[in-house]
Amino acid sequence: MRRVVDVIRRTYESFGFLPLETPAVERVEHLLAKGIAEKEVYALRRLSAGDGDDGAKDLALRFDLTVPLARYVAQHHRELHFPFRRYQIQPVWRGERPQAGRYRQFIQCDIDVIGDGALSLEFDAEMPAVVFQAFRRIGIGDFSIRINNRKILGGLFKSVGLEADRDIRAAMSIVDDLEKIGIAAGVQKLGELGLSTARAEGLIAFFDQKGDNESLLKALGERPPNALFEEGVAELEAVVNASVMNVPERTGAEALIVYQSERDVFRRSLKIDLGIARGLDYYTGTVYETRLDSNASIGSVCSGGRYEDLTSAFIDARMPGVGISIGLSRLISELLREDVLKAERRTIAAVLVTIQDQTTRDLCKEVANGLRSAGIPTELYLETKKLATQLRYADRRGFPIVVIASADELRSGFVVVRNMVYGQEQKVAIPQLASAVRALTPPGMEWNQN
Amino acid sequence: MRRVVDVIRRTYESFGFLPLETPAVERVEHLLAKGIAEKEVYALRRLSAGDGDDGAKDLALRFDLTVPLARYVAQHHRELHFPFRRYQIQPVWRGERPQAGRYRQFIQCDIDVIGDGALSLEFDAEMPAVVFQAFRRIGIGDFSIRINNRKILGGLFKSVGLEADRDIRAAMSIVDDLEKIGIAAGVQKLGELGLSTARAEGLIAFFDQKGDNESLLKALGERPPNALFEEGVAELEAVVNASVMNVPERTGAEALIVYQSERDVFRRSLKIDLGIARGLDYYTGTVYETRLDSNASIGSVCSGGRYEDLTSAFIDARMPGVGISIGLSRLISELLREDVLKAERRTIAAVLVTIQDQTTRDLCKEVANGLRSAGIPTELYLETKKLATQLRYADRRGFPIVVIASADELRSGFVVVRNMVYGQEQKVAIPQLASAVRALTPPGMEWNQN
């Protein structure tokens, strides 16, 4: 899990996103401004009031990282420099259907770019490239980044007679749920908004259009029903086209070994999907969802979009932004299922130094110190136990390498290095120990990557 | 802050401690088992009940990392291998004196070793070496790791007639507060436990003894009042003596440059202080506190000790352990005050690539891609603005390096690299750009250390 977080963090940083961490707790009024259901919010109270006032009134755990971002940008907008890029990797809490003793905590990994008044579509085009590189580095297998623009949906809804904001929001929601509820229920729900069955079926057929990006864009461009729709298509086309250049092509030796253009992989991964709407009200343009080919049924592992107004609930300024959020918990569980990731290792250290003879304790400490100074995490077996017990411990904990030494060996400057995977042993002079251990360490032990 | 956390994490891992992360929320009954005041605990409730049951009943935010460790070890003791070493770096929450809209969140960095039934004193001797190396690497200046053993205090209290556990706990608490409340109040409070003024003053003089470790141990050994006291002195002596060998001496070229023995620095830092008691009830042997010489008045930045029973509140097993906790928030504020640490940088990227001519946008993206592929975090200025505006942005955000290129330069394969600190510019062929940027990057930009 730490490796996955590190990959995401480094990818975010490679594009210049700044780390931001905010407290777990926000004011209830700020959390509710976004329109989340109250039952999903965990509020705080002190177990006993103590000094009269309970001091926790009006406070609750954040349920996403967007509200803290909005509050932060609103509070600091005079000191910040725009476009402001931040990333945030922290837990969020949501009250899901209650079960005895259960609570719900997730880790989200968000990036957003906030503009002061305006923000170029080029930033919408950067997001898929960032996600693509993060997921490629994690090694999650094939995935698709689905992209759409809510102006296309909005234009379409207007063209069939939906005018009220409330109805358009409801229609967006129905599109978002279509996969879950099915076509029949979708038609019925659209009917409740006043659309005839024929119109509803026509809309659903539109959302369900298949094809590559080029042919879909061509079809969309042919008969735009209104200006909003046309604007959405133009934006979608601009973002899709500008995006590919943000992915670095492999170069040099690497390109000779891997007979595959990274940009071609990206082009195949970035798919226009007219059925993507995102449930949340505040998206206004580009929207994204990312599905894993290995298990599309778990839903989107990375979603986001463009919004026109992050801050007006806090200050008298409308700041547009675009962002995406990787749902780490969902991603990790999928990586574990696919065996891309092993469950937490039982040891972080590569080496266990045993103490065979208690008179050599200090010499063994020196051996461990030497390995640590060479950058190799090393555990010293500090209990006074038989060597067999120490080796059993090393085996159960999964240490790949054990250092063993009798008093005679140590005093003549040698130790025995045991490869626990193959059971082989070799005698090594202490000054050569670190390099011998490096040679034996299996790939993937984390210290090797630092 | 991230650098400090990374140093602590790597030092912990170098000794073989495993990372553990637990949810922010624990059951109230588990939290209160440790005897913390209820008003310090933040409990959860859902803002509206929703499905009838509120689902958050009996849940609260953790106030330390020891309760989650105890619960974890109790739940998993059949799968764990002992001695079990874990580290945990996560926030905790405590309800301090209430003020409007205020809440208290701290980050703690804990290590503990848990034994199954027994645990060697060698682990008590490892803790100061781990703390020492972490603080030396952070570069916090001089500090002292004060060490004591509660059996000495307990033996002493018994010898002056305090028998009841409650009275001994109260006396420990008075010792712990002595620095804050002063000698007069100390004498008075000890008097309330039934001690004569002469006895109380004698005790306080004992706690206040000065001297190097050797002479203090000698004095303590001379007339032990009882077996408990004697056991405490023997343990303290064993731990102090065994500790130094866990610190690696500098070797090779490094030792020639730095004319100072690391072990001598450690010996001077590890100080027996008979006035250290730690407030918490569960410590039973070794106790530690760490003070910074630059600002001892902020109190301990790293405390801990030995406890005989981590788990019996959860399961029918007594598991002893020893651990320490670095209070990161307090440490960071001190590092900032001492200018050891600069406040969060305004940029994580070393380079801003400007776009001077919008027809060269894709070429500029390639330049940015190339830098990122070389491991250099790079921000691309994606808004369409005048070069002067882009340079002002780079200056305000603190980018050390800006890449500038006209269409002509780019098409002939060159860019201009501008050192923002000195204002110098140089023309560089694009294949040499990454190495030119590396040469210009000031030390301390984090990507340089990865």
TrEMBL record, chains A, B:
Q: Identify one Pfam family in the record.
A: HGTP_anticodon
- From the UniProt record, list the reaction(s) this protein catalyses: tRNA(His) + L-histidine + ATP = L-histidyl-tRNA(His) + AMP + diphosphate + H(+)
What subcellular compartments does it reside in? Cytoplasm
Q: Which residues form the Aminoacyl-transfer RNA synthetases class-II family profile domain?
A: 1-377
Q: Which domain of life is it from?
A: Bacteria
**Keywords, A to Z?**
Aminoacyl-tRNA synthetase, ATP-binding, Cytoplasm, Ligase, Nucleotide-binding, Protein biosynthesis
**EC code(s) of this entry:** 6.1.1.21
Broad class of where this protein is predominantly found: cytoplasm
Q: Sorted alphabetically, which PROSITE patterns does this protein's record hold?
A: AA_TRNA_LIGASE_II (PS50862)
Answer yes or no on keyword Ligase: yes
> What GO molecular function annotation could you give as one example from this UniProt entry?
histidine-tRNA ligase activity
Q: Which family does it belong to?
A: Belongs to the class-II aminoacyl-tRNA synthetase family.
The entry describes its oligomerization and partners as:
Homodimer.
* Record's protein name: Histidine--tRNA ligase
| Biological source species | Azospirillum rugosum
Q: What is the lineage of its organism?
A: Bacteria, Pseudomonadati, Pseudomonadota, Alphaproteobacteria, Rhodospirillales
In the UniProt record, the gene name given for this protein reads hisS
